[in-house]
Write a structure and sequence with these properties.
The protein is mainly beta and 55 residues long. 7% of the residues lie in helices and 31% in strands. The protein starts with 21 loop residues before the first helix and ends with a strand.
Length: 55
């Protein structure tokens, strides 16, 4: 006897998350400003290829 894993129902599937390329957000550079309401954040790509988001 083998156990069967039920397939995920289309009705229960999570919607795909939006995906953005960091180099496009920075226009090929290493820094971009992102706003949320009246707050401004800076997104920085480090030399090591990591992302840092600061207020």
């Amino acid at each position: 006897m083998t156990a069967q894993i039920p397939e995920r129902s289309v009705l229960n599937a999570s919607p795909a998350l939006p995906r953005y390329d960091a180099t496009e957000l920075t226009c090929g550079g290493d820094l971009a400003e992102i706003t949320l309401g009246d707050q401004v954040y800076r997104l920085r790509i480090t030399k090591a290829g990591k992302l840092i988001l600061t207020k």
